[in-house]
C-alpha cells in the first residue's frame, strides 16, 4: 500500500477507464505533465447507489506517487472546490485507531491548536510554541 493513493469524488461511469480518469485529474487539476505510470488502477469496494467509490491507484514509481501527493497538498483548495480529494491509503488498523481518537482530534482542533495525523498517531502543536506532542489514547 506504500505506492497507493486514493482519489475521492470522481463520478462513476461505466464507459470511463479508471486509469484515464485518474490521469485526467493529475493533468488538469494538479497540472503535472509527466507521464505517470501505474501498476493498477481500480475502484475500491462495492458500488452503492448515489455514492462514488474512491479510486485506488498503485504507482509504479514511488517518486511519482510522492510528486502527485505533495502537489495535491499544495493545491488542496483547487481540489476541494471541485469536490475532489487525494490521499494516502491507510491500513484498517490505522483507520480504526483514527476513528477511536476522533473526539480528541476535534477537541484539540476546536481549542485552536494545530492538529495532524502521522499514521495512527495524533500530533498536536500549540499555536504559541513550536513544541509538538503526541496525544495518547
How do the strands and helices of this protein lay out in sequence?
Layout: E1 4-8, H1 18-28, E2 38-43, E3 55-59, H2 62-74, H3 76-81, E4 85-88, H4 92-100, H5 102-110, E5 114-118, E6 121-125, E7 132-135
Antiparallel strand pairs: 1-3, 1-4, 2-3, 5-6, 6-7
Write up this protein.
- The chain has 137 residues and is α+β, with helices and mostly antiparallel strands.
- The protein folds into two domains: 4-88, Alpha-Beta Plaits; 92-135, no CATH class.
- The chain is 35% helix and 25% strand.
- It has helices at residues 18-28, 62-74, 76-81, 92-100, 102-110; strands at residues 4-8, 38-43, 55-59, 85-88, 114-118, 121-125, 132-135.
- The strands form two sheets. Strands 2-3-1-4 form a four-stranded antiparallel β-sheet. It has a three-stranded antiparallel β-sheet with strand order 5-6-7, covered by helices on one side.
- Strand 6 (121-125) and strand 7 (132-135) form a beta hairpin.
- The two termini are 26 Å apart.
Total domain units: 2
Could you list the spans in which at least 5 consecutive residues all have pLDDT below 50?
A: none
Percent helix: 25-40%
Indicate the mean pLDDT. 90
Query: What is the CA-based Rg, rounded?
Result: 17 Å
Entry summary:
The chain is α+β, with helices and mostly antiparallel strands and 137 residues long. The chain is built from five helices and seven strands; from the N terminus they run βαββααβααβββ.
Main features:
single chain; 137 residues; alpha+beta; Alpha-Beta Plaits; 2 domains; 4-stranded antiparallel β-sheet; 3-stranded antiparallel β-sheet; 5 helices; globular
Amino acid at each position: 500500500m506504500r505506492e497507493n493513493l486514493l482519489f475521492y469524488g470522481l463520478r462513476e461511469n461505466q464507459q470511463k477507464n479508471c486509469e484515464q480518469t485518474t490521469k485526467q485529474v493529475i493533468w488538469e487539476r494538479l497540472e503535472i505533465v509527466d507521464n505517470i505510470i501505474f501498476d493498477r488502477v481500480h475502484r475500491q469496494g462495492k458500488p452503492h447507489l448515489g455514492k462514488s467509490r474512491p479510486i485506488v491507484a498503485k504507482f509504479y514509481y514511488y517518486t511519482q506517487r510522492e510528486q502527485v501527493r505533495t502537489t495535491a497538498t499544495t493545491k488542496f483548495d483547487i481540489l476541494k472546490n471541485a469536490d475532489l480529494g487525494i490521499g494516502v491509503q491507510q491500513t484498517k488498523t490505522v483507520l480504526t485507531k483514527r476513528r477511536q481518537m476522533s473526539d480528541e482530534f476535534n477537541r484539540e482542533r476546536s481549542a485552536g491548536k494545530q492538529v495532524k495525523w502521522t499514521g495512527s498517531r495524533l500530533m498536536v502543536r500549540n499555536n504559541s510554541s513550536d513544541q509538538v506532542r503526541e496525544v495518547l489514547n
